[in-house]
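Standup notes, protein team

Yesterday: finished cleaning the Dorea formicigenerans set.
Today: Phosphohydrolase structure.
Blockers: none.

Input for Phosphohydrolase:
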Amino acid sequence: NKNIDRICFIIGNHHTPSKIDGLDFQIQWEADLLENLTVMDKEKEQEKIKKCIDENFKTNTGKRIAYNRFILD
């Protein structure tokens, strides 16, 4: 099945950003990063968090969620 092959590809490469080849993979990548950012210290690591968001998030929704959750005003 084509869907199963796609899901297996994304899961098998979910730590390899160079393999991102579609919106579905990008969304998974951003969702994983949102979880990973929860372990960072929002008070002390603002620049590092902002850099991670700016370099990795490509969707407007992902950027908005990340900025709202992790960037202090």
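Follow-up from PR in the comments: The chain has one domain: 2-70.
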